[in-house]
Amino acid sequence: MIKTIRIICAGIYSKRWLLTRRTVQLFILLAFLYQLPFIGNIATGNLSSSEWFDKIPLTDPFILLQSFLAGSSLAAPALIGALILAVFYAIFGGRIYCSWVCPINMLTDAAYWLRQRLNLKSNLSISKELRKAILFLALLLSFSAATLAWEIINPITLLQRELMWASMAGSMFLLALFFFDLLVSRRGWCGHLCPVGAFYGFLGHFGRLRVTVNRAESCAGSSCSACMKVCPEPHVLVPVVSLKGNTVVSGDCTRCGACLDKCSSGVLSMKIDLSHKHSFKNIPIVTKK
Amino acid sequence: MRNKTELNPDNAEPERRTAFKQIFRRFGVAVVGTLAGHAMLRSRPAISAEIIRPPGALPEPAFDSTCIRCGLCVEDCPYDILKLASWTDDAPVGTPFFVAREDPCRMCPDIPCARACPTGALDPLLTDIRKADMGVAVLVGHETCLNYKGMSCSICWRVCPIRDEAITLEPMQNTKGILQIPTVHSDKCTGCGTCEKHCVLSETAIRVLPRKLGLGRPGRNTAGRDKV
Q1: What predicted TM-score, i.e. pTM, was given to this entire model?
Q2: Is the domain B47-134 a CATH 3.30.70 member?
Q3: Between B37, B62, B86, which is nearest A161 by CB?
Q4: SUPFAM superfamilies this protein is in (chain A) (predicted)?
């Protein structure tokens, strides 16, 4: 009896970040669909602009930027909402959005999970820089076509619309996205193509919530590299695994915590890191204690 | 890749080949980018007769760039008439619209949809719903409208929320006798679509159209007549 409980607890502990993350993601997704008794609306709108508890306005800065480039003048409620989010993500790290908020992450994570399960090896390698090109294209097109270019395809708000008004075209696109990640390219969408991720990567370039190595001497580095195997953006862990840096400084880190779940020696932790000496022009500085 | 070539200079690719590779790669990106961009530009639909925007909506090109597709107006509509466009609808994806024949705008005096808009795509300065301009009702079915056939259906006139102002019944003499013709006055009509909803025909004879499609415009050359 005690043994089974212990096993369950150990299981939960080894997935603590994943479980927390899924809870947050599901809460945010369901907050738009359901109301609480006595309180009423949790959130209205969708992830492009929303109102939480009928008070707090939040607006996606990327979508507002497209709108601004398309030639609209900015109105106060949307601007305030976008500033709140932009400041939050700039301080803590932009791609927190990707792993803790974005519902598409659940879809692509499911595809990745199934990919591992079915042991599918085929992989179309795409440059990680492509998402930056798509981001640039989206902004350029917004400017030249006076419309919100990325919103024509954006699967994030598409998914939310599908939940309210299911349509064949939209569901097919989401399904195609799932199969793209499953069969064509490993972590293809979130890791290589999505310009929203690229935007938040830029926004949170100096984000302060960072994966940090505590006791560097206990880290086996590249001979273990379990963290790198589960990381959705493995290149961010290179300085850590090669024992050249104690912190993950790259803006591409989504702060998903997969590495913390996986690390068997327990040297990794998520920390607010205020020092700025970890890298000089992207070359990590060795600070071994 | 680069490291390998640096380690074994014998295995290095000829410089010209790498240069060509890079050129073709960039060319490919440019072609794909142009195609995608072109498709996106073309995918912006023209003004559609079936897309009626919520009250206070900016004129069409400005609405497209200002609306951020959040759906706050949709959720604040107490009658739940609004929908965000999907790919199959005739509006830019994610923008709000309603179908008058299914569910017309009830013209709430406090205009909750416009109040909810965070970007001003629905004009926050619109305070009088009677000044709203969602479109204009047009009696399109002159051959099917029952009043044109000499009956006195007049349902459009009776249900109009701006009764006897936006739609009036104008007597007209013809061979059958005196007809009571429902006549829309575009300066009073808000385009709420209540008339379209209640038209008794299986396909409505009175239809709300975007103002640009629903109204003519006098020519610049008045050809001797007084300017209207």
Answers
A1: 0.84
A2: yes
A3: B86
A4: 4Fe-4S ferredoxins
